[in-house]
Amino acid sequence: MPGPSLYPNIQRSSHGYRKGHTDSESKIIPGDKSGTTISMKEEDGTPLEKGSIEGTGLTTGKKVVMKPGETHVFKGDSEVLETPLAQKKSKAKYRKDGTLKKVVTKDKETGYKSKIKFDKTGRIKSAKNNRTKNKHKKSKQRLSQSSWVKEDMAETTEKHFPTAGKKEVVKTAEEKRNETYNRI
Q: Does 40 lie in the same domain as 104?
């Protein structure tokens, strides 16, 4: 006979955050004694529209950020707690010549705000957010290596530059020369 639940206000669901199912702050996904398999796909096989979700195994405590389209196995966990991650929205602004001027990221749910400014060569000129102490704001090298800057830029890159992850075609020296001197 099962005892009282440690999570009384959290909905139990085998469907998770798929379309057409009730939405809640968190959900517990049941599995079996050997483990729980979480699919981040809609019922028709497309990636989950809800976005990234943090999964926490209730037996082992293992935490995983699960992205849409992925499948995760929580071995040894008979139940997994799913909590949707906040959805940040990034906007990129450009100069008249087409170079990136700044990226502004906001999240209404958590109140997160960040602003990353770029010089005309595309390097970070300044960056700040309302979550960190911005202690490296004068060191451009440290700013470019900062995890929150990389995270905010990754969202912008995916939205505004969908070909960023694709390989470029390598040109021969002759093709480069012809392009430089406008030869046809």
A: no
* Structural domain boundaries, residue 142: 89-160
Q: How many domains does the chain have?
A: 2
H or E, element range at 112:
strand 112-118
pLDDT digits (tens, 9 = 90+) for 6-53: 655 677 777 787 877 777 777 888 888 788 888 888 888 888 887 788
> Could you read off the pLDDT of 42-63 as tens digits, one per residue?
888 888 887 788 888 888 888 8
- 1 assigned to some structural domain: no
CA distances for 124 relative to 103, 114, 127, 128, angstroms:
10, 13, 7, 11
Q: Does the model's pTM come out above 0.70?
A: no
Element (H, E) at 175: helix 173-180
